[in-house]
Amino acid sequence: MKIVVFTGAGVSAESGLGTFRDSDGLWEKYRVEDVCTHEAWLRNPELCVSFYNARRRDTLAAKPNAAHLAIAKLQKAVAGTRVITQNVDDLHERAGSTDVVHLHGELMKLRSSIDETDTVPCLGDQHYGDRHPDGSLLRPYIVFFGEGVPYFPLACEIAAEADVLVVVGTSLNVYPAASLLQYAPGNAKIYVIDPGHPEMGYYRDRITFIQEKASVGVPQLVEQLIQQAGGK
Ligand code: APR
Q1: Which candidate, 82, 76, 90, 97, places its Cα nearest to that of 180?
Q2: Are residues 47 and 12 in the same domain?
């Protein structure tokens, strides 16, 4: 049984990391146009760098929660389980998940300004002006609005092989990431775990909606899937 887990900011909410569009979300405090668009990077790179330095510090201070740990347990128990995330934190990896596909980049890396996938580690504050070995200015390894999503084709290939797609903690508002559900086969079982009201659109009738917080809904579903797959 091929299981694919697709997560958004909600899976890290109980680790204390803000979501984007909830009432107290990041986009209530910062304008996307100032810190998370290609134009913002060109217009005010230092503000972008300090915004992501603050989010990196928050991530370093956060810990994986029961949902991250359950997803890592699922990967170990059911061979071939893949994790695709919109999140830029490393909580899936710190919980033990492997081979995680980050659609929107990673806070713990910086990238070349000329090659979008050529990265270097960054475990503290970035100092604006530092250069990549290729000579270009280093920048946050974040897919800004208006930029390409280099790993989206890979994510579609993975979703296209899913027997089960588990969607956790995403409003399904941002494309192309949200369109991943369309790439799951017609007979795939789709679960959505979210205490709110994500945009399930015309998928609604195909989806098993578990209206719970991730730390409650994910461990319960993981146990059920491990049983179904005959894992331990
Ligand atoms: N458990 C599970 N889900 C939760 C929890 C929780 N404890 N708390 C909130 N949520 C849900 C919300 O109900 C909402 O559906 O998490 C979702 C968060 O939605 P968004 O804030 O829109 O985050 P996300 O869907 O990941 O945003 C996608 O937008 O700004 C860009 O690049 C950014 O990757 C991000 C993308």
Answers
A1: 82
A2: no
